Description:
The chain is mainly β.
Amino acid sequence: MTIFSFRALALLATICIATNCDAQTESSELSSQFRFGAGLFGSLYFHSAGFSGLPGVSTCCPYYENGSGLGLGAAAFFQKPLAPAFSLSLWGGASDIVAGFTSIEEKTVIVDNTVQSATIQHILETNIAALYFEMQLSAQFSTLFSGFIGMRGDFFATSSFRQREELVIPETGSFETGTRVRNERSGALPGINRGLISPILGIRFDVPLNAERTMFLLPELSFGLSVTDATGFAPWGVRQIRAGATFGWQFQKDLEFIREK
């Protein structure tokens, strides 16, 4: 985990505490209700790796370093009030962690007895289906806006990869295989760990869907940075920018009944 991520988490926590001191009574009452719900999310992943190939998979790639990918996910949550303007929520869901790595190799080849420059593109695409759990501490800044920090654990269920090498330049000619594509491989992703651990921080909006304020649409934007690697054979960190929305329901009468008890 980088120094930047520690500072970012500390900054958000400071903002939460400072803002809570000036929070209005209405927002405090809002955050003191039990909630539950479910929603859908889309994630943009940025991968930082350091390997030339997968274990046991033939390749001529010099080095894979950076990649990215888009994934979808779904989750459900339960939120419990802790104090005025503060709450704790537990999330569980499933998501796809997608990565696309590209490495460009420049080398000299001989075509028709002529020395030419060649460009070879190495492509590795991976997909990891994961179950995840999150614990979030939220601070209600107003009736419509809150921020949160927390921890996320991704547990890998299944994985797959596809690999190939393409001859880009020259436009004529081929590899020793007689084709312009070689080392095509696919299968289960070898050498992966059991999961990832990531601190997260984000913001969430509360959009009431009825006059009683018992139903909400909760759009959110969050950022996560893994402190563990996706693989055991080489460094492979994952950064995630997630955006989506959940539908939430809020207990009111039931909460009053519990308090009377």
